């Protein structure tokens, strides 16, 4: 390894984050692109494998008369047909739990075509065994019961009524969860079920499925080409089978008819013979009956007399009975009244008792309350007394204190007087001393004046001082002086006297001072005592006040208590009085009641006597009645015997007549039947043959449209990732070149060629690309199809595992594109340095100088920014490629999410829009042929219970041709009456402008068709029916429509010749009728070919779109990854580049958050800009993706709903903030001491 | 706090400061038993050869690094006991830093660089005035790259001063400047200290600068070898080297 390549490896290891960012974006970009592209292929490959395994049919043939084994053989003989098998299919009501009826689609178990995939169990071996749908809840051994609720025709087709599940299967005929609709039950097929052919009692097949030779894989253009090529030939084959089927049915029927005619002739002869015998027997019986009749008439007259007598007796009795009933009623009334009175009295007593107990309770409660109040009052009184005692005690204390204070005050005043006395004495003493001193001085002066020889000092003061100091010379002088003055006192004595006087005075002074101090102290003490006393006095007064208040309160409480007591007593007395009154009233009522009861009992006895008499009379009468009845009975017996005879005769006669008539009718019926059969044979309609390709299978075609959504999304991703990857590469390499500028210069100075030096960078980005693409493509090819399959598997559970698919050409192109782009941008990024002279390169590049940005020219905004925002703005615009990378990356993030959610909005709601905004009808019904006016009325009458209104029109498939393109569309021709009413069924509008129905020569076309054919309002196009002349139409309006392409015209426009077949109806459902039932009832009607419910379609497509949420999730994840990589990369580079700046800012004392925001603010601003840019990009992308979803019948209009905008923006900011949060910790770790390091 | 006989506590006080860096198994003792004091309003020059621990000392005094043991006080506050968060606040309010390589924000004009520092302080000086005071009144709106090295360092000084700090720490402030420009910068620092009574600590390996200082601390091998008071500092204009 050369040192240069070592250097490169080290470079990668030195800052792995940077290398990883490039790597990651390439992994993401290539992985998502290849993965999504491959997903569709992997999905179709998985489906193809399954279809091959189960030998899915290519074409199916069915005729309205069914098909037989002969037909199968004939089809098999065709050279284009690889295999063919007949299948019998029948929908029937079944029950699994014995209660609920659901619709099952029964299929005869095929052996060669559309073979179900057995997941569990075994194939059925007996007619009462079946294979169950894996989507159903059935498990092995469960029973499926065909209910009696099916019509007889259906029941007749089954040889068994109960089936046992022996295996669980998936069927290629039902790729997705959709099980189709039925003309019975709820109208929806719940599940399918495979049974052996001998479970059915049938001699024909409903469908023959065939597999053709040389068919390419499913969902390929080649398959479409091949099947298109085969179609005309197979259509002929189907028609030939229909003809053969017709011929065989007709000849069978004619043979049967001949047999029937012979049988009829024999039966007629037999009838004539039997009739003659019967008529003879009847005549004999009639004669016998006439005799019996005369006897009976005599007996009848006698009975009539007895009856009259009896009637008189009865009338009398009835009179008596009425009188008794009246009496009885009166008594009953009296009794009821008495009972009422009794009840009232009882109630009165009860109430009285209640009153008494209530009173007692009240009295008790009142007493309780009052005694509580009293106790409280007593307590208060006690408290007050205690307060009084305390107060008195405190008062005494206070008074003691006061006395003491006064005593102290007197003492103090005495002290003051004594002190004054002492001071006076002191002053007297001082005066005496002073005069003594003066005398001495005088003497001394005299000595000085008169005896200077004696005086050792000339100055009196000095002499005096010396004397006082005990100077011997001075003493002598004084003594001598004294002697001379004849004073007997010695100098020593005088001095001692003065000194003693001074001492005494000083002592007196000290004593006075001490006395004064003492007095001052006493004064302070007294003042303090006085203050204490006055505060104590205040407290005492306050205590007194409190006590007085307490007494007043107590007094008022006491008064209240007494008032309460009085009130209580009064109310109790009142209540007692009331109770007494009530009791008196009750006693009186009781007495009255007793009197009434007695009266009642007397009346009752009287009544009972009358009743006894009446009953006796009645008994007599009954006896007479019995006698008469016996006579009557005898007569009646006779009469009935006669009548029986007569009836017997008549019955016999009638029976004979009926039998003759029946026989005649039977014979007539038989004749009519023969006649009908003859007519029926003539009427057997020539059968229609239907040839259907795989597209006729709902699951197969749904799968195609679902996979095309995945494909269209894959077209969005590469763009962003590619651009962002390139930009990340540019910024990273530029940064590296900048960092290693001097190193490059050194290498170049050492003599390495520019290419060798550049190779380092090329290797850097190249290795990231090679590694990234390899990982991305390999990972993407496996992970993404897997994820997508997980989503789709929910709807299509035919294979748990997707077949992985490695698309080598796609991978190679992706790989090459990334590598080329990366190497190119690397070259461009370092071209300038490499081509410079080494001397320039080796010198450090002057730091990129600060520049004013355009925004500064807008002082309105600029002046409002804080410095930190100014730095941010200037930094952002310093490196254009970084801004671009960041904005594009973030915009991509927003746009991808917006697209993902927009797809969801556009697709998921399209059905809602269609059926709430455009198609207002509930059902569309296709009839097998033209409906006359009468038949239409009959249809309306038959379905009156489910359909409210219907619009009959003509609809057929035609080719619409414009200059640019042509397309198969439906044309709907509406008659004049329909034009007036169509607004209830279809809402024609463009945006929200309503469109009028077209006039003659004009047509309304749907927006999807207008796009496809490039038509605008006023353009002309041509309608080419399969038969008949083409019609030129002018577009009068383009109406918003999402599902199907339909051209609306009036009937005077199309068809050009003759009257149109009215074969189509739009139906509005009766309110409150279940849609499924209504659909089943419409489908069950003769002449209805197909009918579909808007609601069904809505639900079906709605379900199909459920998996879109995974697509949205995928884009969100993808967008998040994009945002992470971009923001991480930018922040990473920013941090590395501005390490010193950040450290300086930290030295300046920015807190962690402030210094982090110093860098992260850029992210925030760029996120805002990017997100803002992402919105229009997302709108455009969404429109593009939606236009890529190429489904023939559904036309999607790009729509993005408000929540999607909000979510996209919110998530973008969230992702950005997450990276910021991650980077924050890195920023806090920057050491401020870095600022001290020398520049690189 | 240990009181010294007869004098109040010094403005800045290093007491037995020790700083050990650990790099894996290796322990490097950057400062060992460093003790010195500086009084308020002084210009203090710290000299010593490379690797003597000058920068470590500055880092620790500037609140950018923690110490291993010992204590540092500034104006009676014990910096060595501060939490990391409190240290940031300390840097923010009390310390002005002048770097060898100016460390101006390239993307901000001279005025904005000063304002950047001023706006995070509680009691800043007017940025405009400060720049005028350092003699850059005419170049307020220039970006750093449009200024000479000396001018850039003046902006850096203005940025430090505008925070109105207690302490101005200068790390080889003339290291990247030519003789005359360096002299002008030192003159500016001297004037600042003399006029406003700012405590200025200059770290340098140029011992000629010791003449301008009130106090010279010689650092060697991670400890203060010598602390000399200079009662009559020589004005910088008279120093030649």
Topology:
The complex is a heterodimer of chains A (1240) and B (241).
Chain A: H1 3-14, H2 16-53, E1 59-63, H3 69-76, E2 81-87, E3 89-95, E4 102-108, E5 117-121, E6 129-133, E7 143-146, H4 152-157, E8 162-170, E9 189-195, E10 207-212, H5 221-450, H6 460-468, H7 472-485, H8 491-683, E11 689-693, H9 698-714, H10 717-739, H11 741-750, H12 754-793, H13 808-835, H14 838-842, H15 859-862, H16 867-876, H17 880-908, H18 910-918, E12 923-927, H19 933-942, E13 947-961, E14 966-974, H20 976-981, E15 989-990, E16 993-994, E17 1002-1006, H21 1007-1013, E18 1020-1024, E19 1031-1039, E20 1046-1050, E21 1064-1069, H22 1075-1083, E22 1088-1093, H23 1094-1104, H24 1108-1137, H25 1139-1147, H26 1152-1188, H27 1202-1228
Parallel strand pairs in A: 4-9, 6-8, 14-20, 17-19
Antiparallel strand pairs in A: 1-10, 1-11, 2-10, 3-4, 3-7, 5-8, 6-9, 7-8, 12-21, 12-22, 13-14, 13-18, 13-21, 15-16, 18-19
Helix pairs in contact in A: 1-12, 2-9, 2-10, 2-12, 2-13, 2-24, 5-6, 5-8, 6-7, 10-13, 10-17, 10-24, 12-13, 16-26, 17-24, 17-26, 17-27, 24-27, 26-27
Chain B: E1 12-23, E2 26-38, E3 43-47, H1 54-61, E4 69-74, E5 77-78, H2 84-94, E6 95-98, H3 110-118, H4 127-133, H5 149-162, E7 167-171, H6 179-196, E8 199-204, E9 215-220, E10 223-229
């Amino acid at each position: 390894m050369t040192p240069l390549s070592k250097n490169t490896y080290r470079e990668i290891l030195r800052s792995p984050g940077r290398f990883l960012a490039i790597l990651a974006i390439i992994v993401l970009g290539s992985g998502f692109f290849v993965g999504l592209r491959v997903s569709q292929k992997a999905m179709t490959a998985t489906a193809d494998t399954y279809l091959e395994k189960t030998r899915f049919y290519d074409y199916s043939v069915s005729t309205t008369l069914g098909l037989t084994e002969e037909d199968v053989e004939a089809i098999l003989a065709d050279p284009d047909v690889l295999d063919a098998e007949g299948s019998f299919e029948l929908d029937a009501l079944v029950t699994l739990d014995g209660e609920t009826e659901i619709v099952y689609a029964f299929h005869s178990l095929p052996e060669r075509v559309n073979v179900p995939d057995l997941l569990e169990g075994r194939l059925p071996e007996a007619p009462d065994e079946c294979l169950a749908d894996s989507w159903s809840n059935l498990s092995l051994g469960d029973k499926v019961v065909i209910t009696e609720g099916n019509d007889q025709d259906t029941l007749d087709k089954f040889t068994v009524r109960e089936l046992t599940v022996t295996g669980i299967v998936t069927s290629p005929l039902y790729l997705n969860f959709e099980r189709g609709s039925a003309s019975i039950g709820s109208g929806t097929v719940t599940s399918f079920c495979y049974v052996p052919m001998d479970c059915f009692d049938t001699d024909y097949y409903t469908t023959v499925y065939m597999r053709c030779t040389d068919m390419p894989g499913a969902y390929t253009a080649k398959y479409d080409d091949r099947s298109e090529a085969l179609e005309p030939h197979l259509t002929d084959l189907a028609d030939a089978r229909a003809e053969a089927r017709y011929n065989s049915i007709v000849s069978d029927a004619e043979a049967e008819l001949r047999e029937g005619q012979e049988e009829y002739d024999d039966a007629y002869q037999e009838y004539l013979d039997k009739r003659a015998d019967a008529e003879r027997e009847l005549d004999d019986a009639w004669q016998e009956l006439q005799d019996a009749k005369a006897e009976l008439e005599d007996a009848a007259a006698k009975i009539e007399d007895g009856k009259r007598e009896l009637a008189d007796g009865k009338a009398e009795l009835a009179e008596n009975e009425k009188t008794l009933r009246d009496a009885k009623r009166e008594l009953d009334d009296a009794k009821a009244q008495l009972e009422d009175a009794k009840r009232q009295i009882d109630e009165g007593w009860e109430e009285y008792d209640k009153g008494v107990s209530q009173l007692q309770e009240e009295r008790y409660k009142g007493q309780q309350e009052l005694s509580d109040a009293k106790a409280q009052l007593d307590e208060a009184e006690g408290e007050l007394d205690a307060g009084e005692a305390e107060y008195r005690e405190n008062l005494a204390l206070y008074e003691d204190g006061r006395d003491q204070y006064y005593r102290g005050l007197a003492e103090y005043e005495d002290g003051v007087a004594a002190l004054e006395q002492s001071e006076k004495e002191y002053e007297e003493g001082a005066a005496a001393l002073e005069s003594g001193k003066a005398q001495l001085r005088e003497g001394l002066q005299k000595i000085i004046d008169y005896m200077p020889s004696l005086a050792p000092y000339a100055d009196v003061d000095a002499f005096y001082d010396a004397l006082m100091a005990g100077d011997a010379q001075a003493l002598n002088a004084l003594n001598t002086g004294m002697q001379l003055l004849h004073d007997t006192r010695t100098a020593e004595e005088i001095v001692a006297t003065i000194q003693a006087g001074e001492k005494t005075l000083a002592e007196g002074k000290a004593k006075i001072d001490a006395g004064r101090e003492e007095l001052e102290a006493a004064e302070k003490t007294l003042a303090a005592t006085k203050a204490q006393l006055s505060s104590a006095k205040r407290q005492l007064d306050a205590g007194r006040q409190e006590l007085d208040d307490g007494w007043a309160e107590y007094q008022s409480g006491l008064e209240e208590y007494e008032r309460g007591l009085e009130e209580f007593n009064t109310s109790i007395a009142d209540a007692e009085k009331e109770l007494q009154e009530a009791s008196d009233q009750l006693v009186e009522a009781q007495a009255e009641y007793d009197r009434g009861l007695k009266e009642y009992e007397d009346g009752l006895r009287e009544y009972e006597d009358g009743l006894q008499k009446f009953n006796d009379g009645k008994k007599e009468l009954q006896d007479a009645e019995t006698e008469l009845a016996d006579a009557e009975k005898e007569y009646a017996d006779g009469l009935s015997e006669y009548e029986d005879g007569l009836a017997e005769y008549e019955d016999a006669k009638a029976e004979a007549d009926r039998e003759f008539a029946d026989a005649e009718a039977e014979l007539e019926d038989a004749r009519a039947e023969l006649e009908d059969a003859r007519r029926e044979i003539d009427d057997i309609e020539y059968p229609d043959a239907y040839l259907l390709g795989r597209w006729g299978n709902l699951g197969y075609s749904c799968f195609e449209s679902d996979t095309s959504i995945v494909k269209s999304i894959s077209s969005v991703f590469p763009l962003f990732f590619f651009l962002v990857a390139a930009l990340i590469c540019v910024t990273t390499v530029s940064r590296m070149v900048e960092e290693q500028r001097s190193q490059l210069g050194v290498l170049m100075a050492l003599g390495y060629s520019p290419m060798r030096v550049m190779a380092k960078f090329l290797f850097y980005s190249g290795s990231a690309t090679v590694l990234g693409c390899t990982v991305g493509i390999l990972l993407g090819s496996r992970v993404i199809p897997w994820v997508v399959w997980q989503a789709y598997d929910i709807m299509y559970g035919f294979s748990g595992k997707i077949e992985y698919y490695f698309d080598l050409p796609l991978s190679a192109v992706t790989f090459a594109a990334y590598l080329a782009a990366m190497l190119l941008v690397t070259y461009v990024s370092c071209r300038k340095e490499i081509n410079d002279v080494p001397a320039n390169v080796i010198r450090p590049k002057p730091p990129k100088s600060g520049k004013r940005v355009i925004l500064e020219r807008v002082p309105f905004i600029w002046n409002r920014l804080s410095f930190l925002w100014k730095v941010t703005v200037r930094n952002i615009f310093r490196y254009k490629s970084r801004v671009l990378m960041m904005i594009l990356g973030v915009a991509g993030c927003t746009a991808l999410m917006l697209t993902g959610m927009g797809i969801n909005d556009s697709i998921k709601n399209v059905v809602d829009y269609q059926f709430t905004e455009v198609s207002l009808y509930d059902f569309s019904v296709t009839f097998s042929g033209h409906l006359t006016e009468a038949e239409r009325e009959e249809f309306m009458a038959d379905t009156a219970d489910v359909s409210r209104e219907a619009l009959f029109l003509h609809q057929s498939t035609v080719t619409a041709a414009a200059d640019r393109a042509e397309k198969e569309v439906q044309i709907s021709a509406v008659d004049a009456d329909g034009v007036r009413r169509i607004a209830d069924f279809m809402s024609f509008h463009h945006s929200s402008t309503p469109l009028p129905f077209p006039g003659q020569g004009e047509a309304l076309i749907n927006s999807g068709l207008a796009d496809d054919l490039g038509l605008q309002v006023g353009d002309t196009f041509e309608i080419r029916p399969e038969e008949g002349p083409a019609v030129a139409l002018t577009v009068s309006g383009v109406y918003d429509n999402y599902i199907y392409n339909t051209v609306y015209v009036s009937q005077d426009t199309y068809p050009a010749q003759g009257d149109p077949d009215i074969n189509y109806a739009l139906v509005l459902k009766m309110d409150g009728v279940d849609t499924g039932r209504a659909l089943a009832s419409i489908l069950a009607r003769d002449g209805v070919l197909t009918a579909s419910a808007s609601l069904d379609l809505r639900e079906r497509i709605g379900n199909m779109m459920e998996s879109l949420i995974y697509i949205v999730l995928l884009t969100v994840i993808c967008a998040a990854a994009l945002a992470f990589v971009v923001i991480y990369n930018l922040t990473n580079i920013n941090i590395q580049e501005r390490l010193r700046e950040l450290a300086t800012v930290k030295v300046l004392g920015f807190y962690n958050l402030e210094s982090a925001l110093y860098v992260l603010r850029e992210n925030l601003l760029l996120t805002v800009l990017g997100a803002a840019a992402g919105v229009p990009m997302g709108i455009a992308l969404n429109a593009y993706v939606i236009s890529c979803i190429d489904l023939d019948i559904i036309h999607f209009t790009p729509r993005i709903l408000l929540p999607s905008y909000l979510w996209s923006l919110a998530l973008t900011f969230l992702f950005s903030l997450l990276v910021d949060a991650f980077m924050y910790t890195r920023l806090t770790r920057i050491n401020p001491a870095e600022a001290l390091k020398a520049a690189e | 706090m240990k009181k010294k006989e007869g004098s109040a506590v010094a403005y800045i006080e290093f007491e037995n400061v020790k700083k050990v860096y650990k790099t894996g198994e290796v322990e490097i003792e950057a400062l060992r038993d460093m003790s010195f004091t500086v009084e308020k309003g002084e210009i203090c020059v710290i000299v010593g050869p490379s690797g003597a621990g000058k920068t470590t000392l500055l880092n620790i005094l500037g609140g950018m690094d923690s110490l291993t043991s010992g204590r540092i006080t500034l104006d009676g506050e014990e910096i060595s006991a501060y939490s990391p968060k409190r240290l940031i606040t300390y840097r923010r309010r009390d310390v002005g830093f002048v770097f060898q390589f100016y460390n101006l924000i390239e993307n901000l004009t001279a005025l904005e660089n000063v304002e950047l520092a001023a706006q995070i302080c509680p009691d800043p000086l007017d940025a405009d005035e400060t720049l005028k005071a350092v003699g850059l009144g005419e170049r307020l709106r220039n970006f750093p790259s449009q200024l000479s090295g000396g001018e850039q360092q003046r902006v850096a000084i203005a940025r430090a001063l505008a925070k109105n700090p207690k302490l101005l720490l200068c790390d080889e402030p003339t290291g990247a400047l030519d003789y005359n420009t360096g002299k002008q910068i030192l003159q500016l620092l001297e004037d600042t200290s003399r006029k406003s009574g700012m405590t200025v600590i200059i770290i340098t390996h140029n011992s000629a600068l010791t003449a301008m200082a009130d106090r010279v601390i010689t650092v060697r091998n991670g400890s203060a070898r010598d602390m000399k008071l200079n009662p009559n500092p020589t004005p910088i204009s008279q120093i030649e080297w």
